[in-house]
Specification:
Blueprint: H1 3-28, E1 42-48, E2 51-54, E3 57-66, E4 69-73, E5 78-83, E6 92-93, E7 98-102, H2 105-162, H3 167-221, E8 223-225, E9 230-235, E10 242-243, E11 248-254, E12 257-265, H4 266-274, H5 287-297, E13 300-307, E14 310-325, E15 331-339, E16 358-364, E17 368-374, E18 382-386, E19 392-396, E20 401-403, E21 406-409, E22 418-420, E23 433-437, H6 441-451
Parallel strand pairs: 1-23
Antiparallel strand pairs: 1-22, 2-17, 3-12, 3-16, 4-11, 5-7, 5-10, 6-9, 7-8, 9-11, 12-15, 13-14, 13-16, 14-15, 17-21, 18-19, 18-22, 20-21
Organism: Aliiroseovarius zhejiangensis
Keywords: Coiled coil, Membrane, Transmembrane, Transmembrane helix
Protein name: HlyD family efflux transporter periplasmic adaptor subunit
């Protein structure tokens, strides 16, 4: 068959039939449903803004050290005669324990010599009293003899004037009178020196008495006694050893009180200081003022020791600022004290706080009240809320306290507001929201904050 004829007789009829079938299907098919365009709400998690009390807290770390340390330093030199058998590293000695004693022989000899010198000086003083009495008696006699010599001189002068006595005889009598006056002068001079000699002897006695007191004091110093209950940290003395003056024999750490120096960042310390009721608006930088401010805060301190999964705690007292601000790290040292650190050990259920333990310290100030939100709800200084029409709104909010995973706001957020925790992306002000309340997150965050 020719191709043209084939096209006319076969192909065109088939194509017309297909077009007719397609037209029939289209004309009889139900048209598609039409939907009006509408705004879609974005699902978000929200919480209701509520007011809570939160205690500003600071967590720091430090090493336990004894509050008091005693250095057993020899005040006098001598041979060690006795050493306490408990003077061994790690032993705890009660207050008043004799740590060591030097041989008392040399000190007793010094005491005996000082007493002998005092007795000799007192005897010399008594001798001066007797000598004074004798000299006064001799002076009385010499004065009487002087009166007689004076009378002889008057008679000699009368006889010489009458021409019955020679010049030589008169001069001899006058010489005898002058000699007697010299004797009287000698006795008076001796008496005049006695008060000075007595004063010198009294001062000598005082010197010997001071020597005696020194010798007795050195005898007392030959025995070293522990002033407070302490644990032996180190010792370096044995019986028979010669101990030089100023040499250290032992070092003991007090057990009644322990200290921990907590290095805290200034920003954390600022939260404690500035978030108190009627608090300062600026942080004082003077160490003395910082210590006074620290005492006014009435902080509650807790020392924690972690032993695996177990955490042991001790109550502590915030005592002082250590030594100002570290210029390298910008941290401030807070010193906390633990009373009766050894006595709180209990019945073996926990160890005592001993030197060198690494612990963490929690400091809590008085609670403050405000709207508490998850820290993640604060984004670039703003908080997202869902309004009454479930529309996204952004408000500016400045937290008064940011601590851990929570943030506390004083007056920028209204109580009862619905806070959006997961705003849609992109974040468009006025976007329609599908809020889903999260009723557990705040309970969890507050519990974590209380347990930190």
């Amino acid at each position: 068959m020719r191709p043209g004829l084939k096209l006319i007789l076969i192909t065109l009829p088939l194509a017309l039939i297909g077009v007719a079938i397609l037209a029939y299907v289209i004309s009889t098919r139900t048209p598609p449903d039409r939907h009006e365009l509408s705004e879609r709400a974005s699902p978000v998690r929200v919480i209701t803004a509520e007011s809570y009390q939160v205690a500003p807290a600071l967590v720091g770390f430090g090493v336990v050290a004894p509050a008091r340390t005693y250095q057993a330093i020899a005040e006098v030199g001598g041979t060690v005669d006795f050493v306490n058998p408990l003077l061994r590293d790690g032993q705890i000695l009660p207050a008043g324990s004799v740590l060591l004693r030097l041989s008392p022989v040399d000190f007793n000899l010094a005491i005996a010599q000082a007493k002998a010198n005092i007795r000799a000086a007192e005897a010399r003083l008594a001798e001066l009293d007797v000598s004074e009495a004798n000299q006064r008696a001799a002076l009385k006699i010499e004065l009487e003899a002087l009166e007689l010599k004076a009378a002889e001189v008057e008679r000699a002068n009368t006889l010489f004037a009458a021409g019955t006595m020679t010049q030589t005889a008169r001069d001899s009598i006058r010489a005898a009178h002058l000699a007697q006056r010299q004797k009287v002068q000698g006795v008076e001079s001796t008496l005049a020196l006695l008060p000075t000699q007595r004063a010198a002897q009294i001062e000598q006695i005082a010197l010997y008495q001071a020597n005696l007191a020194t010798a007795e004091l050195n005898l007392d110093r030959s025995e070293i006694t522990l002033p407070f209950a302490a644990r032996v940290a180190s010792h370096s003395v044995e019986v028979g050893q010669f101990l030089n003056k100023g040499q250290s024999a032992a070092t003991l750490d007090g057990v009644d009180q322990a200290e921990v120096v907590v290095q805290a960042a200034m920003s954390d310390f600022r939260n404690l200081v500035l978030n108190r009721p009627n608090g300062l608006t600026t942080l004082p930088m003077d160490p003395a003022m910082l210590t006074d401010t620290l005492h006014e805060l009435r902080l509650q301190a807790t020392v924690r020791l972690r032993l695996g999964d177990e955490v042991l705690t001790w109550p502590a007292i915030v005592d002082r600022i250590s030594d100002g601000i570290d210029p390298k790290t910008g941290t401030v040292g807070l010193v906390v004290q633990i009373n009766d650190a050894y006595g709180q050990a209990g019945n073996g259920n926990r160890p005592p706080l001993t030197k060198g333990m690494f612990v963490d310290v929690v400091l809590r100030a008085e609670p403050i009240t405000g709207i508490v939100l998850p820290r993640d709800a604060l984004r670039d200084g703003h908080v997202f809320v869902a309004d009454a029409d479930n529309r996204l709104r952004r408000i500016r909010a400045e937290p008064k306290l940011v601590q851990g995973d929570i943030a506390l706001f004083a007056d920028t957020i209204e109580q009862g507001s619905r806070i959006v925790l997961t705003p849609p992306v992109p974040t468009i002000d006025g976007a329609l929201l599908d809020p889903h309340p999260d009723t557990q997150i705040m309970d969890r965050l507050l519990a974590e904050d209380a347990a930190q």
